[in-house]
């Protein structure tokens, strides 16, 4: 099993490196990750986790390992804020192992982790988490680019860098905006690339992943800039779900004016008990505690499960579509 996992990780890293070395284009970097079992794809999603095992991070990791083994997952999605409080200083920073390698030790979690950056990652050396040298420390850690696409046949995952959208971050000198500034150009290009990629996608499921919530009933609430700039593209281009972290909770919210479902998985460690906001969308489920989400996908069915820190099932979401459905 270890040899198979090693071969898979090596192949993914090689493909990602080849993509990064390719001539610059206007398109988002793509990573091919076909499901290991024909017709089905199983993944976990977790965010806001990197606290050296503290705030029940270790307990969440243990339950992820158990669920990951049961589902025989293909990979893990991280919704950002990977290393607290201020990311990592460089690729040899011991915090990386203390927050990631030494915590997610279950055999089932020795799969690729596809990573977006959160605002806390940006207050450190944001480029270090994307440096190929970080994968020499732990080959699972695939922060391929600031924004990129994971093509997995059954679903396309569009991992989007949302921190630059947040205008108030630009008023602070502590954020690492290398390769991002100027803000307006960066955002305009990213939105155009995402719009094109969603339009061209032929996958049965289109799942967009970002750190910050678009619609949220937890502490941070709605992100105005994403409501204005990102949400219209998701609705116009037939995205099925938007998965985020940032709010340290678990939630499922239904859009009142489109089929898009908003899923928060930001319960990887420290949670915000009792801190809520209002949103004009429909809150289907909200839990102000720690946990994570699993996704089981086929061409016609999606089954999501929200787990708490003890592995209890808190909420499920099911969606079906015919193979003739088009976005």
UniProtKB/TrEMBL annotation:
InterPro entries per record:
Acid_PPase (IPR024927), Calcineurin-like_PHP (IPR004843), Metallo-depent_PP-like (IPR029052), Metallophosphoesterase_PAP (IPR051558)
Q: Which reaction does it catalyse?
A: a phosphate monoester + H2O = an alcohol + phosphate
Give GO MF terms, alphabetically: acid phosphatase activity; metal ion binding
Residues annotated as signal peptide: 1-26
The first-level EC class reads hydrolase
Residue positions annotated to bind Fe cation 2 are 81, 119, 211, 246
Q: Which GO terms describe its cellular component?
A: extracellular region
Q: Which domain of life is it from?
A: Eukaryota
Q: Tell where it localizes.
A: Secreted
Sites binding Fe cation 1 sit at: 48, 81, 84, 248
The cofactors named for this UniProt entry are: Fe cation
Is Zinc given among the entry's keywords?
A: yes
Co-factor binding details: Binds 2 iron ions per subunit.
| Keyword Nucleus (UniProt) | no
Which keywords appear in this protein's UniProt record, sorted alphabetically?
Answer: Glycoprotein, Hydrolase, Iron, Metal-binding, Secreted, Signal, Zinc
Question: Which residues does the UniProt record annotate as the domain Calcineurin-like phosphoesterase?
Answer: 42-249
UniProt-listed Enzyme Commission number(s): 3.1.3.2
Family the UniProt entry places it in: Belongs to the metallophosphoesterase superfamily. Purple acid phosphatase family.
- This protein is called Purple acid phosphatase
């Amino acid at each position: 099993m270890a040899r198979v996992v090693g071969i898979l990780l090596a192949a993914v890293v090689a493909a990602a490196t080849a993509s990064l070395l390719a001539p610059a284009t206007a398109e988002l970097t793509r990573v091919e990750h076909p499901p290991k079992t024909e017709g089905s794809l199983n993944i976990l999603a977790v965010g806001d986790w990197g606290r050296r095992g503290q705030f029940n991070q270790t307990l969440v990791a243990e339950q992820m390992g158990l669920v990951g083994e049961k589902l025989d997952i293909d990979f893990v999605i991280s919704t950002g804020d990977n290393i607290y409080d201020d990311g990592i200083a460089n690729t040899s920073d011991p915090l990386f192992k203390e927050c990631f390698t030494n915590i997610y030790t279950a055999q089932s979690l020795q799969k690729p982790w596809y990573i977006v950056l959160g605002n806390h990652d940006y207050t450190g050396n944001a480029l270090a988490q994307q440096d190929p040298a970080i994968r020499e420390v732990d080959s699972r850690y695939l922060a391929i680019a600031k924004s990129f696409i994971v093509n997995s046949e059954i679903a396309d995952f569009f991992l989007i860098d949302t921190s630059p959208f947040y205008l108030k971050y630009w008023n602070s000198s502590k954020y690492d905006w290398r390769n991002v500034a100027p803000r307006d150009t960066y955002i305009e290009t990213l939105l155009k690339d995402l719009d094109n990629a969603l339009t061209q996608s032929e996958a049965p499921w289109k799942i967009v992943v970002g750190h910050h919530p678009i619609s949220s009933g937890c502490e941070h609430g709605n992100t105005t800039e994403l409501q204005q700039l990102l949400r219209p593209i998701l609705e116009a281009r037939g995205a099925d779900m938007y998965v985020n972290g940032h709010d340290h909770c678990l939630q499922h919210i239904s859009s009142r004016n489109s089929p898009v479902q908003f899923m928060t998985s930001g319960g990887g460690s420290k949670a915000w008990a009792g801190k809520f906001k209002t949103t004009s969308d429909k809150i289907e489920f909200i839990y102000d505690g720690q946990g994570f989400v699993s996704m089981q996908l086929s061409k016609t069915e999606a089954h999501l499960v929200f787990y708490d820190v003890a592995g209890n099932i808190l909420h499920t979401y099911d969606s079906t579509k015919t193979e003739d459905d088009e976005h």
